[in-house]
Write a structure and sequence with these properties.
The complex is a heterodimer of chains A (302) and B (277). Chain A is mostly helical and 302 residues long. Chain A folds into two domains: 33-63; 67-300, MetI-like fold (Orthogonal Bundle). Chain A is built from 13 helices and no strands. In chain A, helix 8 runs antiparallel to helix 10. Chain B is an all-alpha fold and 277 residues long. In chain B, helix 8 (141-151) runs antiparallel to helix 12 (214-220). Classes of the chains: A mainly alpha (302), B mainly alpha (277). The interface between A and B is large, with 95 and 94 residues.
């Protein structure tokens, strides 16, 4: 898909369009390498290694400390399996809901003019400013058994806090902004011309959305979804507060890890950490690929 | 024109979309925040103040802000240096490092804690060597800063990098031609252009650091008056049933974080700070 450039749109400045994730353009000095420069590169790489790389390697070593067999048997334990199923289920629900919301909210923020739009734009970002623990506390205040809403729900036999619905709500709260934040700049850059053209050609609203808008923002959606999944899988504080941490029943993978490290048999925790770390590494690779596509799409489209 | 009828025909589904998304946002985000604010301030300002200045709470807040400040300072310097090296210099593994910068955004905070303890903890080789030298990092205050540095690692780098990439080199070259050394050129010419992006990255890091829980609690534990940061304190008070103490400290954390983000937003609107995605 390479639509004709809109009249009057200048080509993006060089350098910017080349700024891809995979191969960062080099804006280096042409002078011969000096000692100061080598020292700076070494310092930056040592810092990176000490903070990010070697701790990751240490986790792998720790998990494999006794070889494959104990690792595999630790992962095969029912508690571990249940925790991962729980995490994946919560991630699925929160991601689907927040993706639908994210697309709708971004369309509203970019395509509609209404009073208080700037304020709403700020409200979307609020979960980024809230500590996960505080997010959990907010949900307890609102839906806890001693609150009016929670009391009413409980009287109908529906428990939110210290149960699965609370954990889903907590995960949804912390991941509200991701998809919206990715899509707003993309929709703004895209403009309305193609949608209007489709409309003029007789396409209905849904048709326009499915065959014009969605295809043009699909990589933005993919990027937002990847970030959301990563955060959902890794969420700990907010879920911890509302879970009540009932062993087995309401435990996610991160809760299982924290509990395992505190107990005297951390093998399962190390194994589960390794799985989550591997998953986040894969998500990072996915993010990188999607970002390539995003930049690529921006280079072609005006 | 047909614009009038078209606009009217458009109006109803658009209103429905707006109504639905605003309702979701209201129920998910606004309502819990209002409920918390109401509960936190309902007992009155005196009770609020007493809860915040209670010795354990006060220490937790102080520890949170001090560690966040130290992290921001270290992070601003190392982050700017990393962005600089990645944009300006060629070295083996450059693209790989650049791709791995975002790893802390993808790794769960609990796993971060497990990783750092596995490497620097007292049971590891590195930890044992550091322990003999008298450095206690894990289960102590330096561990908090280490964890915060990990989780905020990408912020400054990702905020400074695009500015460095789009920077016009002419001024730097002019300064060099006029006899300025590399340090003078950096501090007089480059740094003033980078400041806003460094500030943006630092503000985001600071806001994140104030609320960080998972990695800090794994790395530093929850020893009162030693490593109990504000989020850890809040969790403890929730568990022990002191709802108001938890709410008051939460309000302080949330207020500070919002203040930072609102200030950053105001600066961005004035066009002084580059907007980063």
């Amino acid at each position: 898909m390479s639509p004709d450039p809109a009249p009057g749109a200048d080509p993006a400045p060089e350098g910017m369009t080349l700024a891809r994730a995979g191969d960062l353009p080099l804006k280096g000095r042409d002078e011969p390498s000096s000692w100061g420069r080598r020292l700076l590169i070494a310092a930056v790489l040592i810092w990176f290694a000490a903070l990010i790389l070697i701790p990751g390697a240490a986790l792998v070593r720790q998990a494999f400390a006794k070889g494959w067999q104990p690792l595999a048997s630790a992962l095969a334990e029912p508690a571990v399996r249940r925790a991962f199923v729980m995490s994946l289920g919560i991630t699925l629900v929160a991601t689907v809901v927040n993706t639908v919301f994210g697309i709708a909210m971004a369309l509203v923020l970019v395509r509609q003019r209404f009073f208080g739009r700037t304020l709403i734009d700020g409200v979307v970002d609020m979960p980024f400013a809230v500590s996960p623990i505080v997010a959990g506390l907010m949900l307890i205040v609102l839906y806890g058994p001693d609150s009016p809403v929670g009391g009413w729900l409980e009287s109908r036999g529906f428990q939110v806090i210290y149960a699965l619905p609370g954990m889903v709500l907590a995960t949804m709260f912390v991941t509200v902004p991701f998809v919206v934040r990715e899509l707003v700049p993309i929709l703004r850059e895209l403009g309305e011309e193609y949608e209007q053209a489709a409309h003029t050609l007789g396409a209905g609203r849904w048709r326009t959305f499915w065959s014009v808008t969605l295809p043009s923002i699909r990589w933005g959606v993919a990027y937002g979804v990847t970030l959301t999944v990563a955060r959902c899988l890794g969420e700990f504080g907010a879920v911890l507060v509302v879970s009540g941490n009932v062993i087995g029943h309401t435990q996610t993978a991160t809760l299982y890890i924290a509990e395992g490290i505190d107990s005297f048999h951390p093998e399962g925790a190390y194994a589960a950490s390794l799985v989550l770390a591997a998953a986040s590494f894969l998500l990072l690779v996915g993010m990188d690929l999607v970002r390539h596509r995003l930049e690529g799409a921006r280079e072609v489209e005006p | 024109m047909e614009a009038g009828t078209a606009a009217r025909r458009r109006a109803r589904p658009e209103l429905a979309l707006r109504g639905a998304s605003l309702t979701y946002l209201g129920v998910m985000v606004v309502l819990p925040m209002l409920a918390m604010a109401w509960q936190a301030f309902r007992p009155g300002p005196a009770a609020f103040w007493a809860a915040v200045t209670e010795p354990y709470a006060w220490h937790a807040l102080k520890l949170t802000f001090v560690t966040a400040f130290i992290m921001v300072f270290v992070g601003a310097v190392t982050g700017t240096a990393t962005a600089w090296v990645l944009v300006r210099y060629e070295f083996p593994g450059r693209n790989l490092v650049n791709a791995l910068i975002d790893l802390p955004f993808a790794v769960p905070t609990v796993v971060t804690g497990v990783m750092l303890v596995a490497l620097y903890g007292p049971q590891s080789v590195v930890g044992a060597i550091m322990g003999k030298a008298g450095w206690k990092v894990i289960y102590d205050q330096p561990g908090i800063i280490l964890a915060l540095l990990f989780v905020t690692y990408p912020f400054v780098i990702r905020s400074v990098q695009p500015v460095l990439l789009s920077l016009d080199r002419a001024e730097e070259e002019a300064a060099a031609t006029l006899g300025a050394g590399p340090w003078t050129t950096f501090f007089r010419i480059t740094l003033p252009t980078l400041w806003p992006s460094i500030l943006t990255g630092s503000a985001l890091s600071f806001s994140r650091a104030l609320g960080e829980y998972g990695s800090v609690v794994m790395v530093a534990g929850n020893q009162p008056l030693l490593t109990k940061t504000a989020p850890i304190y809040i969790f403890g008070e929730i568990e022990s049933g002191n709802r108001h103490g938890a709410l008051a400290v939460s309000a302080v954390l949330l207020g500070s974080s919002l203040l930072i983000l609102v200030a950053l937003n105001a600066l961005q609107r004035r066009g002084e700070v580059r907007d980063v995605a």
